[in-house]
Amino acid sequence: MKKSEINFTVELDESRIPERIFWDATENPNEGINETRAIAIGVWDHYHKGTLALPLWTKDMDVFEMKRFYIEIIGSVGNTLIEATGDEKMAKNIEGLCKILTKDLQAEMKAAEKQ
After folding, report:
1. For residues 10 and 20, is the Cβ–Cβ distance under 8 A?
2. Which among 13, 38, 44, 4 is positioned nearest to 23, based on CA atoms?
3. Quick one: CA torsion of 27, 49, 97, 94, rounded to 10 degrees?
4. Could you tell me which of 1, 10, 44, 113 has the fewest CB atoms within 10 Å of its CB?
5. Rounded to 5 degrees, what are φ and ψ at 84?
6. Per-residue pLDDT at 29
7. The pLDDT of residue 108
8. What torsion do the CA atoms of 39, 83, 86, 92 make, to the nearest 10 degrees?
């Protein structure tokens, strides 16, 4: 049986806040370890019928990047949902939410530029 691995390494400061996050995977299209500012891992717990979520971000990731990151995660969930289940209605609702959130974020960023 073929196996694939994904590895994360998190460097923490004295207060255990992530300073740097690295990831690597056996099927990584980019060779070597890659640094990132945020990861969000969701694991389905079939025993308790719920999601175990592990969101991590470095202290230097700005708020607008974080918001965009989550909008894009939500969008990718919609894309994956339609491929996995064929539920077009739910996927369209997710897409609609992402459009609203993106518009709100753009307005927020524009307002911040004026300050």
Report:
1. yes
2. 38
3. 60
4. 1
5. -80, -35
6. 76
7. 96
8. 50
Angstrom distance (rounded) from CA 76 to CA 41: 13
Low-confidence residues of the chain: pLDDT under 70: 33
CA distances (Å), 86 to each of 80, 83, 112, in order?
9, 6, 39
For residues 69-97, one letter each, b for 16 or more C-beta atoms within 10 angstroms of the residue's C-beta and e for the rest, the string is bbbeeebeebeebbeeeeeeeebeebeee
| Residue 106 pLDDT | 97
Residue-level pLDDT at 97: 98
Place of tokens 């993106």: 102
Query: Closest Cα to residue 26, out of 52, 3, 60, 49?
Result: 3
Task: Give the closest residue to 75 by CA, choosing from 52, 99, 95.
Answer: 95
